[in-house]
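Entries read chain and fold; for instance:
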Amino acid sequence: MSDRKYISLDDIFVLSQLGAHAVVYGLGDKVQKTLEFIQTECADNAGGFLMQSIHLFSSGKVKEAIAFLEASPALSAEKNRDEALAFHLLLLQADGQTARIRQLGNHYLATNAITSESAHYAVRTILQDVEG
């Protein structure tokens, strides 16, 4: 993280919450600089990258959301990685990439790559949907 005398972790938390709410309310375009700042300051936290990917997805840009998430450090981040992995599968499902979902989802479950129960549940649900 950069110069902490100007911005604290609490400040970044508040900015993250504002960014997330803006994305939820369809105002993701208005907070791009904020999302980029969060991503830069907290690259070890998938949250900022997830917000950007959710914004792209909710704007109908599924392929862009997938490409962004895959190019970001979110899928290997220290924090909120489980949520990023589960959302990645959801994006792949929206794009009709069932073979990839099966491969990745089963790998995540078999290797215990996901530890969060809610993300575990999401991955199992997506796999069940794909299996028909």
About this structure: DSSP finds seven helices and no strands in the chain.
